[in-house]
Amino acid sequence: MVDDPHSQSVDSVLSAHETTADGLAHEEAQQRLAEHGENEVVQVSERTRLSILVAQFDSVLIWVLVAAAFLSVWAGHTIDAFLIIVIVIANGIFGFVQDYRAEQSLEALRELTTPTATVRRDGTTTEIDTTELVPGDVVELESGDVVPADGRLLEETDLEVDEAALTGESVPVSKSLESVDPDAPLAEHTSMVYKGTNVTRGRGAAVVSGTGMDTEVGGIARELTATEETRTPLQQELDQLGRRLGLGVFVLAALVVPLLLLRDTPIIQAGLTAVSLAVAAVPEGLPAVVTLTLALGVRTMAEENALVRRLPAVEALGAVDVICTDKTGTLTEGRMTVSNVWVNDTVVTLDETEDELRGGGMELLLQAGALCNDATRDEGDPTEQALVKAAEDHGFDVEALREQQPRTDEIPFSSETKWMGTVHDDVGYVKGAPDVVLSKSSRVLTADGTVDLTPDATERIREQVRTFADDALRVLAIAYAEDSADIESDLVFVGLVGMIDPPREEVADALASTKRSGIDVKMVTGDNVRTAAAIASSLGMGREVIEGREIEAMDDDTLRGRVETVDVFARMSPEHKVRILRALQANGHVVAMTGDGVNDAPALKNADIGVAMGVRGTDVAKHASDVVLLDDNYTTIERAVERGRAIFDNVWKFVAYLLSANIAEVAIVFLASLFGYLVLPAVQLLWINLLTDGLPALALGADPQSGDVMERPPRDPDQGIVDRRMLGLVGGAGTVSTVVMLGLMFYTLGGAAAITPYAMTMVFTGFVALEFEKLYVIRWLRETPTFSNPWLALAVGVSLLLQLAILYTPLNQYFGTVPLGLADWILIGTVLAVALPGYFVVVTVIREYLPLASTSGESPD
Q1: Using an 8 Å Cβ cutoff, are 117 and 131 in contact?
Q2: Nearest of 848, 573, 564, 646 to residue 732 by alpha carbon
Q3: How far is Cα 805 from Cα 121, in angstroms, rounded to an integer?
Q4: Distance CA 639, CA 304 (A)
Q5: Is 422 helix (H, G, I), strand (E, B) or coil?
Q6: Could you tell me the strand order of the sheet in which 627-629 lies?
Q7: Which of 186, 233, 670, 749 has most Cβ atoms within 10 angstroms of its Cβ?
């Protein structure tokens, strides 16, 4: 292999690879294939159905539930164990179905690749499978080809290559045979072609310098395979919650069982109490409800053109406080467009009306640009496509124009001459680099006709070229020859065309909205500094830019400081992008990375949330991402963030709801056991959890979002889902529930020495009704309108009917309950009336002293 082939001469590279411009002998190629292996890049490993299924059970909370099931079996309560296992399996199935659907949808977006390459072997040109290429092969390239391997150019004629997927460069790169500086960034390796890029113009030949994993794309793939999957904030928080609950269950059992044994409680009853406490402490339905709520979000986001590959990514978007976005095709349209022209000594923008564009000079400029051109609106060199589109958008039928003025001769464009000419009978048209076209011009077209091109006029034109360039426009000059014989020496200069890959129309508003939401947006692009600064400025992002070479000179601490103040990063390599992400993450940020190219893939995978483009995105980028935008539209990211925040609100509500219920259950069982009463056996606790953790909690996932969801700053992931507001709610509401339920228990016992079926039924049913009352109070705390969710009302109604079923049907024998009379229901109603003011006091205190933060003020935390 050759180090830095871009900086070596053609002869040096050929010599180092022991080959010639005629290529390798077949036998030698076969030996090298055995030595180097096939020219294949190991793709980011795709998730199998088994791995997707196993991932659904990778949660501490799930394993706490499994442990509770074993405890139930040990205590002889197989029904309890069965219910727990059913809940765990249901959670796994729900998650698997959603994740697998996302993976299957992604497969439909896979890109096609070129299967063969044209190579010189044994002195002849032949086609072989791209996997059979080896270092030292000489490949031939022409317009439309996908470059099959990395290579040093040996020959080129007008060769341009679109390298946006690899470098982020927004326009095709003109290639040459001249070596470049060893330290030049990848985007400036004009003497090289790279695997996976696209030839847009011309032809050439290159000696293969790297195949398979030794290519630039292979290096990126190697980094991806070495990168561990990141876990979203919600995944981390639920695991932490599971560990704490597991520890709490162990501590409770360790305290309660010896205490009960000392009180001469039979060991079986002590064991049953321990199991009841374990069941009471664990919110069995939490994983399933979280999964289903996220799945609802996935379905909604898919309708909004965002394909979620991992369920937790839906919620994690709501915690993002920095978005690192690629430029080309993400903030911009991903195609060259004529934006400004200079003609008749006047600058004209092409978004003006057609009448304002009428005139001899303008019409001649558009006509010449369309005729001195090999492209159509949709195919060919991007620069020439832009000229055709400009002509068609302003009244020209380009196809008819070309039929009326057929080309009779041409002078092809080349990277050496930097101009192109076409002859149409007696008239010649020219386009090319402004300095080159000026040097061939003797006259200039003005509003008053053709006049001599004076030094002053020449300098005005050059000043205009500099002005266009300062605005990051790619500038072409247009001229014509009245006599086609003079096409190389006596031209009439018509004007200048300024082109750019323009920002998407909707992006500026979307960026402003995300910034108002407390989210910093940073452009991280492989494009050049001038273009990056111009696009950033037009989008309101500021013009200060850091280049990749500056990143290389910074240590990690310096970079951590700079990433907080700079919003535009240009000429970034994949390594630079990952360093920027890690610096932001080291500063405590939750970072989303958007992109579409191979060069974006390492950053996509390292980011907390990777967002790939579905239309322009490469296969590697899609598989490295968490979310794929099906419309490549930045506004979809904004909607996804909004959806993520709304989903977090709903997750917060039912986690608070579930935990406050479980805390009350634990307190009731624990305190009652100290008096010798096992008031809520495991089967009843499971039923309570099934009713409260099931349909009503799930219906919370359909709660509408609050109106201020995008006016708050992103939540602090270090704070966790169990924040101070939730702790206050869980403690306060749990205390209210415990006090009223213990009061109900002692009242219905009437002094009995042991728990009675009647008292147990009253506490059991009263607790279910109390939970539904508290549910609406919690929604009020999160500023959700009371009657805004009809699904919730339906879920509560169905759950109450299920509770009635186990009171008034033969099912009551399995739950140890007895039917209740009208007076009993009045008593339960009285308990609810007593508890309601207590809940409102708790919520009012929380709203007063722990308000939700907003972007207009500081967070209370």
Answers
A1: no
A2: 848
A3: 82
A4: 8
A5: strand
A6: 306-308, 627-629, 609-613, 591-595, 322-325, 520-524, 568-570, 545-547
A7: 233
Across the range 425-453, mean pLDDT stands at 92
**Among the listed residues 530, 516, 522, the one whose alpha carbon sits nearest the alpha carbon of residue 583:** 522
CA distance 149 to 39: 8
Largest CA distance in the chain: 118
Tokens (6 digits) for 497: 């065309």
Q: H or E element: which one contains 437?
A: helix 434-439
Output phi, psi for 117, to 5 deg. Answer: -135, 145
Q: pLDDT-based confidence at 858, cuts 50/70/90?
A: very low
Residue 210 near residue 1, CB atoms below 8 Å: yes
Rg over CA atoms, the chain: 35
For 763, counting Cβ atoms within 10 Å of its Cβ (0-12 exposed, 13-18 middle, 19+ buried), the class is: buried
Alpha carbon distance 796, 36 (integer Å): 66
791, burial (CB in 10 Å: exposed 0-12, middle 13-18, buried 19+): middle
Characterize 434-469 residue by residue with b for buried, 16 or more Cβ atoms within 10 angstroms of its Cβ, and e for exposed: beebbebbebbbbeeeeeebeeebbeebeebbebbe
User: Which residue, among 112, 108, 96, has the nearest Cα to 47 in the 3D structure?
Assistant: 96
Residue that has been written with the tokens 């976005």 in this structure? 325
Q: Mention every residue, 6+ apart, whose C-beta is less than 8 A from residue 849.
A: none
Alpha helices, DSSP H, located in 17-77:
26-36, 49-55, 60-74
Of the candidates 366, 407, 380, 592, which has an alpha carbon nearest to the alpha carbon of residue 496? Answer: 366
**What would the 3-class secondary structure string for 293-320 be?**
HHHHHHHHHHHCCEEECCCHHHHHHHHC
Give the closest residue to 716 by CA, choosing from 589, 584, 582, 847: 589
Q: What is the C-alpha separation between 723 and 853, in angstroms, rounded?
A: 13
Residues serving a catalytic function are 326
The secondary element (H helix, E strand) that includes residue 140 is strand 138-142
The C-alpha atoms of residue 712 and residue 854 are separated, in whole angstroms, by 4
The Cα–Cα gap between 559 and 804 comes to: 63
Are 857 and 708 in contact by the 8 Å Cβ rule? The answer is: no
| CB distance 342 to 476 below 8 Å | no
pLDDT, tens only, 118-159 = 999 988 999 998 889 999 999 999 887 889 999 999 998 888
Residue 658: CB atoms within 10 A of its CB come to 22
d(C-alpha 178, C-alpha 9), whole Å: 8
Sign of CA dihedral 782, 787, 791, 797: positive
Buried b (16+ CB within 10 A) or exposed e, 567-591: bbbbbbbbbbbbbbbbbbbeeebbb
Bridging pattern class, strands 198-210 and 138-142: antiparallel
Residue 249: HSE in the Cβ half-sphere, 13 Å Cα cutoff: 26
pLDDT for the residue 108: 44
pTM of the complete model: 0.69
Looking at residue 542, its amino acid is: G
At 25-63, the pLDDT tens digits run: 999 999 999 998 888 876 545 567 787 777 777 766 677
Instruction: Name all domains of the chain by residue range, CATH numbers in brackets.
Output: 5-44+114-225 (2.70.150.10), 50-101+230-316+639-849 (1.20.1110.10), 321-333+504-607 (3.40.50.1000), 337-500 (3.40.1110.10)
pLDDT, residue 336, reads: 87
Instruction: Compute, in degrees rounded to 10, the torsion defined by CA atoms 833, 838, 843, 849.
Output: 160
- What are the tokens at 80? 């309890």
Statement: residue 588 has pLDDT above 60: yes
For tokens 């919620």, the residue is 315
